[in-house]
Amino acid sequence: MNVRIPSPLRSYTDQATRVEAAGSTVDEVLLDLDRQFPGLRFRVVDEQGRLRQHMRVFVNEEMARDLATPTVGSDELTIVQALSGG
């Protein structure tokens, strides 16, 4: 599956904007990404195994509510770092 990487995480992927990963859930895809790019998953998932508050993950155009969201090989997964401020 094609995974879009946001600018703040590209240091983990040698500046690649898109990478390939496999998995049947968002969690499995993130685990595969972490196998390929150590440390990336920790930036997206907290110590309790939940998506970090400032991170959003989309499967195609649908926001994933949790790590158990199913995926298939033809999906596109997009990781977005939410911005805050006033």
Return the structural class. alpha+beta
CATH homologous superfamily assignment: Beta-grasp domain
Indicate the proportion of strand residues.
Answer: 15-25%
CATH architecture: Roll
Number of strands: 5
Strand order of the largest sheet: 2-1-5-3-4
> Quick check: average pLDDT?
95
The CATH topology corresponds to: Ubiquitin-like (UB roll)
Give me the oligomer status. single chain
Largest sheet: 5 strands, mixed
Radius of gyration based on Cα positions: 12 Å
What fraction, in percent, of the residue positions are helical?
Answer: 10-25%
Q: How many H/I helical runs?
A: 2
Shape: globular
Number of domains: 1
Q: Termini separation (Å)?
A: 35 Å
In N-to-C order, the SSE pattern is EEHHEEE
Structure, briefly:
By secondary structure, this protein is an alpha+beta fold.
Note the topology.
Layout: E1 2-4, E2 18-20, H1 26-36, H2 40-44, E3 55-59, E4 62-63, E5 76-81
Parallel strand pairs: 1-5
Antiparallel strand pairs: 1-2, 3-4, 3-5
Based on the model shown, name its key terms.
single chain, 86 residues, alpha+beta, Ubiquitin-like (UB roll), five-stranded mixed β-sheet, 2 helices, 5 strands, 22% strand, globular
